[in-house]
User: Fold this.
Amino acid sequence: MSSRQEEKEKRKREREEREAADKASAAHRKRLQIVFGSVLVLVLVCAGAALAFGVLGGGDDTVKVPKGGADIPSQTQGDEKKAAAAAGCTLKENLTIEGNTHENKTFTEKDYKTNPPTSGNHFPQWADDGIYEAGKQPQLGLLVHPLEHGRIEIQYKPGTPVHTIAQLETLFNSMDDGHHLLMFENQTNMPYAVAATAWGNMLGCPTMNDKVFDAIRTFKEAHIDKGPEVVP
Assistant:
């Protein structure tokens, strides 16, 4: 009798253990389903936010111009004077050198006889080569000094359309990847839409058009690395 009772109790314990295991397994599956569902919802929310940001734009109204982000015409004119004339630009070469003394002062356009400046006294340090974001260009005295070191500076007037700036960036990068070039927004109230300067030389274009690209290309080839100081 006792043996049958023990067997009965054993089967009861086994049944209870199986039921407990089944309940634990079901609870585990339910927890996994909840976690998976939460992750899926989070992914969908993030994807929707990213899509909305891409379509509607972020809170920053500043337009970021991609490097070389606009197509420009291929070169068709290799003569500097002819290219300038075709673009309606003014080419001024071998201008009087106004000075080359280093001074620790704040320079303005009133310190120079040409606008934009092509020579003259300047700050002891100089601006590095490269493209400067509109409104963040170096101080004028830092921009005149690179000309003395044979640099070419491409500059555009404030308010220039973003597409034009992008085209000028494409041009900049297409010319030996910007070697010994600077590009920035002009702050001297120059009478040109776009200009290029070298030490003692200037190309001023009153309007922007497709011919200006060749004018800048040929100006660069004629005057780069021809400043009076050793190019570092």
About this structure: Confidence is low (pLDDT under 50) at residues 39-66.
